[in-house]
């Protein structure tokens, strides 16, 4: 439940003036520190984990939705969508949807 609460808090910060940039900078920093190839890589690993709770999965989707759709610039929005697509979000959702989960 703690991971879900953290994502809910991060999503709320995204909606505050200047918050979106802070959240993206934090994920950029995390990527560098943890030697990830892509931003949001660890988030997607947790999301795809079979042991993830429904609360966490819902919070994760809400966070992704807010990160992508709280951007005014359409080109940047498409870029953010592509980042998540590249990490397998659409594919994962199709597989999960096919299982009735």
TrEMBL record:
Transmembrane segments: none
Keyword Signal (UniProt): yes
Any one GO molecular function term: actin filament binding
Record's signal peptide: 1-18
One of the protein's GO biological processes: regulation of cell shape
PANTHER family: FORMIN-LIKE PROTEIN, FORMIN-LIKE PROTEIN 3
Protein name: FMNL3 protein
Organism, as annotated: Ptilorrhoa leucosticta
Lineage of the organism: Eukaryota, Metazoa, Chordata, Craniata, Vertebrata
Gene: Fmnl3
